[in-house]
């Protein structure tokens, strides 16, 4: 999944993932995402979601796969302290990761004139270095679930 990356705090992404053109970057705070309403609030504020946003997982996915109200060529969503997102709600965290993966898949592999395939939506999950393997595994497992029949 070239559109979701789990990195340690203060980590970096490979140079080939740097985007060119008009890029909208949303920085979300995982420490503030203690329940689903707080998750939706972070996305609502960070991505300036439209007023008709439905405050549920399907509505979040619908908005993430569109983003037409943000004039940009690509979008970067950085979730800081991703290991703290929905800490007491494992099912909710899986739902969030699955939603991000589905949205990224929707945007992935856009053909550019120069022939390269890139994703127009890039999600960066930044977390404590000790949590990186666990968060990566959670994202991987969600990826398998979203492609299973």
Q: How would you describe what is shown here?
A:
By secondary structure, the protein is of the alpha/beta class. 36% of the residues lie in helices and 20% in strands. The chain contains four helices and six strands. It has helices at 36-46, 57-64, 90-107, 132-147, and strands at residues 4-8, 23-29, 74-80, 110-111, 117-118, 121-127. The longest helix is centred in the middle third of the chain and has 18 residues, at 90-107.
What radius of gyration results from the CA coordinates? 15 Å
Report the count of strand segments: 6
Please tally the helical runs, counting DSSP H or I stretches of 4 or more residues: 4
| Mean pLDDT score | 85
Strand content: 15-25%
Helix and strand arrangement:
Blueprint: E1 4-8, E2 23-29, H1 36-46, H2 57-64, E3 74-80, H3 90-107, E4 110-111, E5 117-118, E6 121-127, H4 132-147
Parallel strand pairs: 1-6, 2-3, 3-6
Antiparallel strand pairs: 4-5
Helix pairs in contact: 2-3, 3-4
Write a concise synopsis of the structure shown:
The chain is α/β, with parallel strands linked by helices and 149 residues long. Helix content is 36%, strand content 20%.
List key phrases describing it.
two-stranded antiparallel ribbon; globular; 36% helix; alpha/beta; 6 strands; 4 helices; 149 residues
């Amino acid at each position: 999944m070239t559109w979701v990356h789990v990195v340690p705090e203060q980590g970096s992404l490979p140079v080939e993932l740097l985007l060119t053109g008009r890029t909208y970057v949303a920085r979300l705070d995982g420490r503030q995402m203690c329940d689903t309403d707080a998750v939706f609030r972070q996305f609502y504020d960070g991505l300036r979601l439209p007023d008709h946003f439905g405050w549920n997982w399907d509505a979040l996915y619908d908005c993430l796969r569109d983003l037409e109200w943000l004039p940009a060529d690509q979008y970067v969503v950085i979730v800081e302290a991703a290991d703290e997102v929905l800490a007491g709600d494992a099912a909710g965290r899986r739902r969030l990761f699955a939603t991000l993966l589905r949205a990224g898949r929707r945007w992935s592999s856009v053909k550019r004139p120069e022939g390269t395939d890139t994703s127009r939506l890039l999600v960066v999950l930044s977390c404590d270095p000790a949590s990186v393997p666990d968060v990566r595994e959670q994202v991987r497992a969600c990826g398998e679930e979203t492609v299973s029949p």
